[in-house]
Amino acid sequence: MSKPLILVTGKNGQLGWELSQLAAAYHSFDFVFLGRTELDLSDNLSIQTCIEKYRPAYCINCAAYTAVDKAETEQAMAYQVNAAATGAMADACRKLNATLITISTDYVFNGNGTKPYPVNEPTDPVNYYGYSKRAGEQLALTNNPATIIIRTSWVFSSHGNNFVKTMIRLMKDRESLNVVADQTGSPTYAHDLAAAIIQIIQQLEAGNKHYGIFHFSNAGITNWCDFAKAIATEAQLACNVKGITTAEYPTPAKRPAYSVMDTGKISKDYGIVMREWKEALHDCIHLLQSENKS
Ligand SMILES: NC(=O)c1ccc[n+]([C@@H]2O[C@H](COP(=O)([O-])OP(=O)(O)OC[C@H]3O[C@@H](n4cnc5c(N)ncnc54)[C@H](OP(=O)(O)O)[C@@H]3O)[C@@H](O)[C@H]2O)c1
């Protein structure tokens, strides 16, 4: 009997790459990993054609327009990749009875909250990136009832571009750094999210099926400044990290002040257990150092 095929988009991004590193350990599935050259999400027709060609049982959409500030001025492209393409993928999956797992963001929330957002908290994005990701959620849920949306936050990995790698690079060159201290959230190690997604697919295969919106981040709450301090400690870099306000560091896109998500539903429905972000950060930096990437 043939194995279920898992099609992964965005293979060169943080999450897509982490999935590609895990794939070899899961012998009960076949995987196909696609990057922008194999599947360009700016073209809805090629999404349809590609999914019809591979006929996957599961599609994990890790590709996205993730340049939060640039999205303010490149709105049409951000909408196409994050919303229209996600909708087209959901449609193509429904026609094959395939499950779509697509990733969304904590930036669908306005940031005015003071306690972790449950999955049914009303959304109210404060920037275009968040708006386009929310539109993608809505289109995916409308076009395919067998859709799982996983909202995540503050993603880091040893691969790709992220806050951890940027901080390490800057801390090596500078004696001090100013980092925003009034935005609160939960970091997520892309490796841990990748493992959780595979665990969810194993559960779906076993007949434990729950669709809709889920939240996933590592456990624990921090702000960018304390996150940077933890990176300096973990990487043993003697850089003085000073907290500043968002008002002192203006960016083209507004960020939510508070974007911590309640991850209870993914634990309840799929038995996913999250470890503390500091523990995950330790593993990521250890990997960077052992691979001489930092
Ligand atoms: N990074 C975060 O902090 C964060 C926070 C919350 C949610 N998320 C969500 O988590 C998911 C994974 O994020 P990530 O951090 O792994 O993102 P990432 O590292 O920025 O990777 C995104 C990937 O999408 C690909 N892509 C962009 N436009 C494309 C197009 N038109 N056609 C095909 N591929 C395209 C990029 O390809 P190239 O390599 O060719 O550019 C890149 O490999 C995304 O849905 C993101 O919105 C991320």
TrEMBL record:
One of its GO terms (biological process) is dTDP-rhamnose biosynthetic process. SUPFAM superfamilies: NAD(P)-binding Rossmann-fold domains. One of its GO terms (molecular function) is dTDP-4-dehydrorhamnose reductase activity. It is an enzyme of class 1 (oxidoreductase). Keywords: NADP, Oxidoreductase. Residues 6-288 form the RmlD-like substrate binding domain. It holds the Pfam family RmlD_sub_bind. Pathway: Carbohydrate biosynthesis; dTDP-L-rhamnose biosynthesis. Its EC number is 1.1.1.133. It catalyses: dTDP-beta-L-rhamnose + NADP(+) = dTDP-4-dehydro-beta-L-rhamnose + NADPH + H(+). Catalyzes the reduction of dTDP-6-deoxy-L-lyxo-4-hexulose to yield dTDP-L-rhamnose. Belongs to the dTDP-4-dehydrorhamnose reductase family. This is dTDP-4-dehydrorhamnose reductase. It comes from Sediminibacterium goheungense.
